[in-house]
Amino acid sequence: MQNQFFPDIPRINYEGPESRNPLAFKFYQPDRKIGDKTMEQHLRFSVAYWHTLTGTGADPFGVGANLRPWLSISDPMEQARARMRACFEILEKLQVPFFCFHDRDIAPEAETLRETNRNLDQIVELTRELIADSGKQLLWGTACLFNHPRYVHGAATSCNADVFAYAAAQVKKAIEVTHYLGGRNYVFWGGREGYDTLLNTDMGLELDNLARFLHMAVDYAAEIGFTGQLLIEPKPKEPTVHQYDSDVESCLNFLRAYNLLDHFKINIEQNHAILAGHTYQHEIHMARINGVLGSMDANEGAYLLGWDTDQMATNIYEAVFALYEVLKAGGLAPGGLNFDAKLRRPSFQPDDIFIGHIAAMDTYARALEIAHNLLGAGEIEDFIAERYRSYREGIGRKIADGSIGFKELELYALEHDRIVNSSGRREMLEAIVNRYL
Q1: Separation of first and last alpha carbons in the chain
Q2: Is there a cis peptide before residue 60, judged by omega within 30 degrees of 0?
Q3: Which residue, among 16, 52, 64, 81, has the nearest Cα to 351 in the 3D structure?
Q4: Distance of alpha carbon 280 from alpha carbon 124, whole angstroms
Q5: CB-CB neighbours of 176 under 10 Å
Q6: Catalytic annotation on 278?
Q7: pTM score of the predicted model
Q8: Which of 297, 294, 319, 317 is nearest to 308 (CA)?
Q9: Could you say which of 102, 272, 278, 372 is catalytic?
Q10: What is the distance between the alpha carbons of residues 407 and 391, in angstroms, rounded to a whole number?
Q11: Which candidate in 105, 247, 308, 362 is catalytic?
């Protein structure tokens, strides 16, 4: 099985930064210790099934161009079995410990839900055997509630109660499958949970229904003994004009409003962050300081385009700040870094799958080392602590501990109205960061 689909691709090993071999790691060494964990333990890499195994290379302006050995198989179920075996060959050769999937990625949808579930069950049994044989693990599962025409108006937020019921049945099955395969997390991405115009939308009902749906999922996960993390993945737009889970802060507001905050954490994607007008670091930071950082999708968006390009992550500077936040949070487990990324359309050869993942894995490996050194040196943290020193003494301490009000602050300001600020020294701090690159 190991060389069934990529016989010319060897197991990818570390050769160091001087290597010119595109099929070798330059920085990623799974067993190398950074602090108290190995790189593998820190980074918890995962392959995204939908891009790597079912992606065709299509984009909004062109049909698929990918050359894949399993595409020559005409029977849908046999092709699904081949893709799953190919997935584990990729995982083994890349030394990646995890994979992620949507239910409809791994098994074809049939005419009825019963038939679809039977298809899914067959592939799940094969997947369980491959997990047992390889030691690879499922990082998270999820349900595809956005592709089929039934979800044209959304899933949990659809105006059609029959669609809500169908989506509930699909998520019930997907949680069962994730639990059966030992998945560590389950993700909710509301691809169409939003609206295009308020002229035809009862937003209050839609938000209430979304909350009801998530409460049902929490209850059912507990009923079957699934103890993995439940994750919500924010995205601001595309395909809807206004997405209810647009960024971390909107998710936090929703979870608090509907008494769901104790049950969910957040899965953050770089490409979604920039579509929301934020940086990747901002979204991770917001999740960290609110105690909801659960997992991350490691990709990149094109800053000059307004849609989800899902590129392989190769920007080390950006990855450094992402992992700086992860290290401050104490790590990602049981979440991980899922390569929710697709090759560029012109990169259509089978070996590009490996070359693309190697590039992204090396990016995060090098960024991990830099972020660890930067955090350990404490230069940034020391500067921030000094900048806010006024809140640890005097009037600032009273503000911070809530022991003072407007009247007392007015009296203080009347006597201390000659204010002296210190420089924020952004350029100096950016130069400090550059010393570690």
Answers
A1: 40
A2: no
A3: 52
A4: 34
A5: 19
A6: no
A7: 0.96
A8: 297
A9: 102
A10: 19
A11: 105
From the list 186, 183, 144, the residue with the least C-alpha distance to 166 is 144
Has 102 been annotated as catalytic?
Answer: yes
E-only strand ranges, 304-378: 337-339
Cα dihedral 352/356/357/361 (nearest 10): 150
At 414, list the tokens: 């009347």
Q: Is the bond preceding 334 in cis, omega lying within 30 degrees of 0? A: yes
DSSP 347-358: --STHHHHHHHH
The number of residues making up the chain comes to 437
C-beta separation of 188 from 232 below 8 A: yes
What are 270-300's pLDDT values in tens digits?
Answer: 999 999 999 999 999 999 999 999 999 999 9
Q: What does the alpha-carbon distance between residue 348 and residue 64 come to, in Å, rounded to a whole number? A: 9
266 φ/ψ angles, rounded to the nearest 5 degrees: -115, 135
Residue 7 has pLDDT above 50, yes or no: yes
* Angle in degrees, 0-180, between the axes of helices 203-223 and 248-257, rounded to the nearest 10: 80
Gap between the Cα atoms of 79 and 85, Å rounded: 10
8 A C-beta contact, residue 374 and residue 320: yes
User: What is the token pair recorded at 347?
Assistant: 């990169």
Q: Which two tokens stand for residue 164?
A: 């809500």
Dump pLDDT digits (tens) for 72-98. 999 999 999 999 999 999 999 999 999
Residue 218 Cα to chain centre, angstroms: 20
Number of H helices, E strands in the chain: 16, 12
What single string gives the DSSP state of each residue in 264-280? Answer: EEEEEEHHHHHHTT--H
Reduce the DSSP state of residue 26 to 3 states and report it.
coil
